[in-house]
């Protein structure tokens, strides 16, 4: 993996990838960090999972078949975020017709209450939301799939049952998860090595219990998860620790079809995640604001461009906290994605002075918790041009480390995405604004931003990323790099990213940005922007670019973790 913390890491990564590592497939298959193909591409964080997706495409499945198969495979090959015990979002652009959004976000259990975390006690057991992944994948398949359901699970079952060789990225991930997991013995039993030594690249990971659970889902459909003995064991595994999910919660869980957020930017159509994600609204709001300025004329790394990007991020994230929540429970103002509103926000940006975040809303200073990369995004396109952009998650890495006894899969700790204390918004990191307070059956607000960009009705870009609240900004950076600054996708993904989330009122940047654009950052400081001196890696954007003239697909796997593109 390329070390992004080295000077020039991103630049080197892009040169190396572009010059030496583009794998072309004229007739046969192609695999690597960057692939050019004509028939189909799958780009995910995990090599075996991307290859499962490609094998489904090659055997006549469409992009949605490949997406379900890739998602099940990731539950085996990337357990820190790939899952059947979590939730997420799938944005689909069918061969013809408008994009469709499958919302399989977790819900608060029926026994959840708005004040359940007011004491500050938030343990793994009560943090589990009712999982949505299996019903979500089944809904997408029922609506668009072509292959028989069991075929989509077969590769994941094989990987779990027979095991697979792990690579360095998975070894690192497992070893990090196993550290401090003593309170969760089932986690260590399933994902630890039998001799308790550290995982190394080349070791074999076998997951027999997970294979059995996946077989049940293959045989019985989603009922094999939601109303079978898997459901009984899930409820029991939680009850022993004070968890509140009931069999009724599981039986009643519904995935939903929603209309995606739609915006336009410089003649492109942007489709992205609607509430209960904040992703699409905030992304379109930021792009709408930026469209009022000639940032292309300034240049990508000019301080004026960076300033306008930061100010757009600040305003969109402020609105996120004020207005967004589950649309089945709160009404989200349409104005947020209107051009008129963006023009007003844009006109309030001072060209050379940072806005104080506290001045934007009559809310006390809010420090938002730091979030990591523990979610996963994959992008797929098939031979007919059907596209899937899917982001799903357990919330934190390996969720709260609760492994359902004897079933081999992890549960999410997604309840942490709700505002914990109604009415309490303070500078220590608590947000208590109403739209995202807990209620039974409600979906917690997300930042996941699976996005598809069209030009003249045809897919040109499929993108998304993990990274908690940073996700929206990662997608915004990649989108601007490509659509506004004309970067080739490899360069756009490798380019250093930055993040401002309204509060904390501080910009975080990736190491390469700090090193390669030090002068621009000095100017930003002079404008009044606070810049964190602890740079962080931001996101893991696995994307696809479509050159419709050449009818060519370019799959670009982000190398920040070690992703893999597989095409044919
Ligand atoms: O839905 C969300 O936005 C978060 N639960 C995603 C979590 C993530 O990306 C990693 N960090 N905590």
Structure description:
With 568 residues, the chain is an alpha+beta fold. Helices cover 35% and strands 15% of the residues. The strands form four sheets. Strands 1-3-19-18-15-14-11-10 form an eight-stranded mixed β-sheet. α12 packs antiparallel against α14. The chain is globular. Residues 1-20 and 363-371 have low confidence and may be disordered. Bound molecules: 6-diazenyl-5-OXO-L-norleucine (DON). The site of 6-diazenyl-5-OXO-L-norleucine has 16 residues, from loops.
Distance between the termini: 24 Å
Q: Indicate the overall shape.
A: globular
Uncertain residue ranges = 1-20, 363-371
Q: Into which percent range does the helicity of residues fall?
A: 25-40%
Topology diagram in text:
Elements (H helix, E strand, L loop, with lengths): L8 H12 L1 E3 L5 E3 L1 E4 L3 E4 L2 H12 L4 H15 L9 E7 L6 E5 L28 H12 L4 H14 L1 E2 L2 H11 L6 H7 L12 E2 L2 H13 L2 H4 L2 H11 L7 H6 L3 E3 L2 E5 L2 E5 L6 H12 L4 H4 L4 H21 L15 H9 L27 E7 L5 E7 L57 E5 L2 E6 L7 H14 L4 H6 L3 E2 L8 E2 L1 H6 L1 H9 L16 E5 L4 E5 L7 E4 L1
Parallel strand pairs: 1-3
Antiparallel strand pairs: 2-20, 3-19, 4-12, 4-20, 5-6, 5-13, 6-9, 7-8, 10-11, 11-14, 12-13, 14-15, 15-18, 16-17, 18-19
């Amino acid at each position: 993996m390329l070390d992004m913390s080295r000077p020039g890491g991103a630049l080197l990564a892009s040169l190396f990838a572009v010059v030496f590592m583009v794998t072309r497939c004229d007739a046969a298959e192609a695999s690597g960090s960057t692939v050019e193909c004509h028939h189909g591409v799958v780009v995910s964080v995990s090599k075996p999972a991307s290859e499962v997706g490609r094998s489904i495409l090659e055997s006549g499945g469409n992009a949605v078949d490949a997406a379900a198969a890739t998602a099940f495979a990731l539950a085996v090959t990337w357990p820190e975020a790939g899952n059947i015990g979590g939730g997420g979002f799938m944005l689909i652009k069918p061969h013809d017709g408008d994009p469709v959004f499958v919302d399989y976000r977790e819900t608060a259990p029926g026994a959840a209450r708005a004040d359940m975390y007011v004491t500050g006690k938030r343990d793994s057991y009560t943090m589990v939301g009712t999982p949505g992944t299996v019903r979500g994948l089944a809904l997408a398949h029922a609506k668009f799939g072509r292959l028989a359901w069991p075929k989509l699970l077969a590769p994941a079952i094989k990987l779990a049952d027979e095991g697979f060789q792990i690579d360095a990225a998975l070894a690192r991930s497992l070893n990090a998860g196993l550290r401090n997991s003593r309170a969760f013995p089932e986690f260590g039993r399933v994902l630890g090595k039998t001799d308790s030594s550290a995982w190394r690249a080349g070791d074999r990971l076998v997951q027999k219990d997970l294979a059995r659970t996946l077989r049940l889902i293959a045989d019985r459909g989603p009922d094999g998860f939601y109303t079978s003995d898997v459901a009984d064991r899930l409820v029991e595994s939680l009850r022993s620790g004070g968890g509140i999910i009931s069999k009724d919660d599981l039986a009643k869980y519904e995935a939903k079809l929603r209309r995606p957020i739609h915006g336009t930017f410089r003649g492109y159509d942007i489709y992205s995640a609607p509430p209960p994600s904040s992703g699409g609204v905030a992304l379109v709001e930021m792009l709408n604001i930026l469209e009022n300025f000639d940032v292309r004329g300034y240049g990508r790394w000019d301080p004026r461009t960076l300033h306008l990007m930061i100010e757009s991020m600040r305003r969109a994230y402020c609105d996120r906290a004020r207005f967004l929540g589950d649309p089945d429970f709160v009404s989200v103002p349409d104005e947020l994605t209107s051009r008129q509103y963006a023009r007003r926000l844009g006109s309030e940006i001072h060209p050379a002075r940072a806005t104080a975040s506290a001045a934007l809303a009559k809310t006390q200073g809010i420090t938002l918790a730091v979030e990591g990369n523990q979610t996963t995004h994959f992008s797929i396109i098939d031979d007919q041009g059907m596209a899937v952009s899917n982001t799903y998650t357990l919330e934190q890495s390996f969720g709260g480390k609760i492994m359902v006894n004897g079933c081999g899969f992890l549960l999410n700790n997604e309840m942490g995405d709700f505002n914990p204390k109604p009415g309490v918004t303070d500078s220590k990191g608590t947000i208590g604004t109403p739209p995202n307070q807990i209620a039974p059956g409600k979906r917690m607000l997300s930042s996941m931003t699976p996005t598809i960009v069209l030009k003249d009705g045809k897919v040109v870009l499929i993108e998304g990323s993990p990274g908690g609240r940073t996700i929206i900004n990662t997608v915004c950076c990649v989108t601007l790099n490509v659509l506004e600054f004309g970067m080739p996708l490899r360069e756009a993904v490798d380019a250093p990213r930055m993040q401002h989330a309204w509060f904390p009122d501080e910009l975080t940047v990736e190491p390469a940005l700090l090193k390669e654009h030090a002068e621009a950052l000095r100017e930003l400081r002079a404008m009044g922007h606070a810049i964190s001196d602890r740079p962080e890696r931001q996101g893991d954007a696995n994307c696809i670019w479509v050159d419709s003239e050449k009818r060519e697909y370019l799959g670009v796997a982000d190398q920040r973790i070690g992703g893999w593109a597989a095409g044919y």
